Amino acid sequence: MAETQLEIPQPAIIVIFGITGDLAQRKLLPALYHLLKDGLLDERTVIVGISRRDVSADQLLEKVELCVNEIDKVCDPEGIRKIRSALRMHHMSLVNDTEYAELKRQLDAIETEQGVCMNRLYYLSIPPQMFTPIVRGMGQNGLNQSCQHGTAAARLLVEKPFGYDLASARELIRETSEWFPEEQLFRIDHYLAKETVQNILAFRMYNPIFTSVWNNQHITAIDITAFEKIDIEGRATFYEEVGALRDFIQSHLLQLLAVVAMDLPDSLSSADVHAQKLRLLEAIEPVSPDQVRSRTIRGQYEGYRTEVNNPTTTTETYAAIELRIDNERWQNIPVRLRTGKALSEKRTDVAIQFRDNDGDGPGMGNRLVFRIQPSEGISLTLLAKKPGYSGALEPVTMDFDYQYAFDAHGHPDAYARVLVDAARGDHTLFTTSDEVVAAWRVVEHIQQAWSRDGDGLTPYPKGANAMEPGNPTAD
Ligand code: BG6
Questions:
Q1: Residue ID of nearest Cα to ligand 1 atom 3
Q2: Count of alpha carbons within 13 Å of 354, Cβ hemisphere only?
Q3: Do 339 and 227 form a contact (C-beta atoms < 8 A)?
Q4: Per residue in 49-86, pLDDT tens?
Q5: Is 274 among the residues known to form the active site?
Q6: What is the pTM of this model?
Q7: Which long-range contacts (CB under 8 A, 24 or more apart) does 207-211 make?
Q8: What DSSP letter does each residue of 371-404 carry, written as one string?
Q9: What is the Å distance from ligand 1's center to 252 Cα?
Q10: β-pairing, 154-159 with 119-124?
């Protein structure tokens, strides 16, 4: 198939709140460097980095590893020059209302200087508790509006978690919508922007041999796993507030499940994709209060309490839940989602277990695995006759590996994709307010039960394997 060339998005001012934070330094600035270097953003793009601290653009860029996404991590001097000239720092207090008016004046001045009406992308890379004051400050000072001639878009990009639970998410959505209607909002779940996750939908849409078997007649279980080797890496305040259930399951893993299990949309338009994802999320049966014990596992790695300086904390660093989807396609099929930090391996994958000949499986049936990361690819396990005089069978694997199938330049980093899609106004790989609410509903009773006490919270050593009931460290 012929490759469609990326249409360069309209010129934009990209305003990053929290430019000195972890996400901006590790992900956003390297992604912006890459996009500017490769000419994937308009050359008039201006990045405005908002910070309370008095840091210059040069001081900031010196600290950042800009070229982590490049081949051999080698920097291109021209790319460095481009990002240096695009980045301007703006110091302001986020809680002082009058400073938003000043920010607006600055952005208008940039536009006058560039001589063109520019889209405005506001990226909130800030702790969730700052979200509402910033949105209000922006709205009250006209930062949610187009340029002076009214021909450009103002878009708000927000990082998860969207709220803390169902009630707070609803409230946040209400408050945000006072200033930014849904079409101006880009709720980021960077897992959706991963190339391997986008490919799940492509796989389902364009390989019709799987379409007729994508249901409970042929599939016996869906397992979605996101294990990390890293611990919380010093993000104590953030992690104490969220825990593994909010950090991964409510967001990344339920979104992955939606892509894997939804009915195929009529087209790949944003509206059609979101409509099917929402239908699927709304069909998931929330874990009820009396199912919490039998359908969930939670754990905490040893040393976590000292790290966050809270000897009694019950925040989970490992979470596994089992769900059921109440629709015709998936009735009675167990769906297991699990995630954890400080484990023995980094691995994210989706495993689809097919029924074997004798009925149920998961004995020797076929197994399809989407490897999201690392060693990105897809494998299908088949049964083969073992060479020899008996009829013995052995599972063998057919493997598609991105590294060998496509060129060595790798694929766009998820954050580069997020920025390009927001710049061109494509909502497909973002989550909608309705999806966010539906996902909170699924985990609501688990959150409530887990926040009451530490009942069932199992400690595990750093570097452990997955936790299973009754055998916390065995996979
Ligand atoms: C973030 C979580 O959303 O995703 C982090 O807040 C996690 O806790 C990160 O480490 C993992 O992202 P990736 O792309 O490295 O798998």
A1: 247
A2: 17
A3: yes
A4: 999 888 999 999 999 999 888 777 788 899 999 999 99
A5: no
A6: 0.94
A7: 210/368, 211/264
A8: EEESS-EEEEEEEEEPSSSS--EEEEEEEEEHHH
A9: 9
A10: parallel
